[in-house]
Amino acid sequence: MSQNFDEIIDRSGTNSVKWDAREQLFGSATALPMWVADMDFKNSDQIRKALHELIDDQILGYALPSDSLFESIILWQKERHQMNINKENILFSPGVVGAIAVCVQALTSPHDGVLIHDPVYTPFSSVVQSNNRRIYRTPLIIENGQYKMDYDHIEKSFKEHSIKMFILSNPHNPGGRVWSKEELIQLIDLCIQYEVILISDEIHSDLTYTDSTIYSPISLKEEYKNWVVTLHSASKTFNLAGVKLAFYIVCNDELKGKIETVQHETEQNSISTFGMVATEAAFSKSIEWHKELMEYLEENRNLVIEFFDKELPEVFYMKPESTYLFWFDASSLHIEGDKLTETFIQKGDIALNAGIAYGNSSQQFMRLNFACPRSVLKEGLQRVKKVFDSVKN
Ligand SMILES: Cc1ncc(COP(=O)(O)O)c(C=O)c1O
């Protein structure tokens, strides 16, 4: 491996949200941070080099997206996600959540219904609500240890609440589920039947493990391009959340026009030069780094699973098919959902995300981020065990 993912980098005191907001958010400045989806690995040498060159050679004024940036995105999506898109299908945004907000404003009207899963990534609901639309949730069902969609409930919701948009986490955060081709087809066909726009948030899609295959809806059937807006970013996979660049893939001209209108109205059409340079270096030059990252993360995932199987056999968890997030059920602690984070801090000094933030159905779950050096992960797992042991003793 050319990249040393075992290297421990001290991020405290660098204004890292993951490390420096511990005291404020968790009440412990020493807690081991295994929460927000941000990796403790150095960026690829290629990204670092590209950013150095930018600073050395250029003036940092307003910048246009270069043809080579578009090409890097088009090629990446073609090779990784079998997508056939062109430059005209791509729009930029500072972030995926910001892009969801724009889609909500552009493609729905005030008080329209928007459907999301329960549980799912927290900002899906807050963004819809802060834009004055009605949020509805459809429960995910646990079957054979993984989340499955309840299509009857989805159809009932479409009918009863005149839903105009479905926001999908593809793959699923926090459960790590990679939706199969058949599951996606069933969902999109329902969306088309009820004239519902599907927002497919694919920010984690390049973090899929070797035992799963990820599909992007617009690669499945040509007609889906009329109903789906895909959102993507290099930020999770290449650890670039701070440089703020994401993109929409929108093939339907009418939808694209509406999105562009809101982008103009909200002055959201100017983007970060650092984001553009880093994204291009990620997609076009960091292929080997990505391959090595995935090997490392897969070993980390397997280590977490082995640990839970051996040390905490009573704890139910979902094997992540994608993402570096591990979703487990802490109900054997017999603690209220809103007290779980505090308990993990008090008994184990470990900062995790509480399931209650993702939906009512996951009040007893916790989310652990395993994108860290293996020695840190091992320490984190011991701390989790300490929390469960504290209840047994
Ligand atoms: C499903 C999902 N979408 C979006 C984001 C955040 O995207 P951004 O930082 O580009 O707004 C995250 C971050 O963890 C996420 O998990």
From TrEMBL:
A family per Pfam: Aminotran_1_2
Cofactor(s) this protein requires: pyridoxal 5'-phosphate
Keywords: Lyase, Pyridoxal phosphate
Domain of life: Bacteria
E.C. number(s) listed in UniProt: 4.4.1.13
Domain Aminotransferase class I/classII large: residue ranges: 45-383
InterPro entries: Aminotransferase_I/II_large, C-S_lyase_PatB-like, Class-II_PLP-Dep_Aminotrans, PyrdxlP-dep_Trfase, PyrdxlP-dep_Trfase_major, PyrdxlP-dep_Trfase_small
Gene Ontology MF term list: cysteine-S-conjugate beta-lyase activity; pyridoxal phosphate binding
CDD domains: AAT_like
Family: Belongs to the class-II pyridoxal-phosphate-dependent aminotransferase family. MalY/PatB cystathionine beta-lyase subfamily.
Protein name listed in UniProt: cysteine-S-conjugate beta-lyase
